[in-house]
Hints:
It is a single chain. The chain is mainly α. About 60% of the residues lie in helices and about 5% in strands. It has helices spanning about 10-20, 30-40, 45-60, 65-75, 85-100, 115, 120-130, 135-145, 145-150, 155-175, 180-185, 190-205, 230-255; strands spanning about 175-180, 205-210, 215-225. A 3-stranded antiparallel β-sheet has the order 1-3-2. A hairpin with a 4-residue loop joins β2 and β3. α1 runs parallel beside α3, α5 (about 85-100) runs parallel beside α7 (about 120-130) and α8 (about 135-145) packs antiparallel against α10.
Amino acid sequence: SSGINAEWPLRPGLKLIKETGTMRYVNLDINQISEWLEKWKCDVQEQRDIFRLLHEALSAINQGEKAIQALVHLLKLYAENEGVDAKSDAHICVISHIAHPNLFVMDHLLDLHPIRALDGQLSHELLQIFVSGDLNDYIEFYTHNRDFVEKLAVTHEESLCKMRLLTLSSLAQDCTEIEFHQLTDKLNLLLEDVEPFIIEAIASGLIKGKINEPEEKVLISSTINRTFKEAQWNMIKCKLELWSNNLTTIQDALKKGHYAMPIGGG
């Protein structure tokens, strides 16, 4: 796809893309645009205007993931005392993440000031469920806030499907195998629907594993971390320390000749 250069009239060009939905093959590089805005010494408000426009232009040409990246970049341009000024953009950002079929990790959004400004609102509560809740949490939220959910730019069925995947990810975090009957209960699925669902989860990249059909269970080799907090850092620290200790043991053994090997012909 073709790129655009710094001479390209940025604001009018983005407006044209937004209004016509054309120029699908233009590569709107977010990092490149950031560099231009810095080079042109644009102030913060000008940068916000451009990134809001960039989000709308990318949405118009169905580049959903890049549109979301532009929106996150926009929200990062708001300081702590300014977050309330971007609550509308923050709401769109939350729902866009929930609606996107390939975005599963959302905990980074909770640190953005405009997202924090949503605290106490239903969209913030819904985000927290998609960050660390499970299917039952979502169903309970839907039961009490049906009108709110029905008006969102993502259907209840799509949200149910995604929450099932996220719940499976959490279940897979602490075990190496899960029996089908456990998933019928936790994911509110019929037994005959479990296997197709697991195939979908593996295809999505959410988990890595294989199905043991005769024993009706899934063997888990790895899964994504929905949240990356202190517990995850401690886990990495422990693994690194273990590897370091193992290397030290091997080095000591080599020095003592325990692993001495003949050099040359026998």
